[in-house]
Amino acid sequence: MLTLGIETSCDETSAAVVRDGRDILSNVILSQAVHTRFGGVIPEVASREHIKAIVPIYQEALQKADVTLDQIELVAATMGPGLVGPLLIGLSFAKGLAYARSIPFVPVNHLEGHLAANILEHPELDKHHLTLLVSGGHTMLVEVKAFGEYIVMGRTRDDAAGEAFDKVAKLMGLGYPGGAALDKLASTGNPRYFRFPRAVMKDDFQFSYSGLKTAVALYLNKLDPKEFDDKKADIAASFQEAVVDVLVTKTVRATEATGVRHVTISGGVAANSRLRKRLREETEARGGRLFYPSMALCTDNAAMIGAAGFYSFEKYGPGELIANAIPNLKLT
Ligand code: KG4
Ligand code: ZN
Question: What strands lie across the sheet with 23-31, from one edge to the other?
Answer without folding.
Answer: 23-31, 12-19, 2-7, 74-80, 105-109
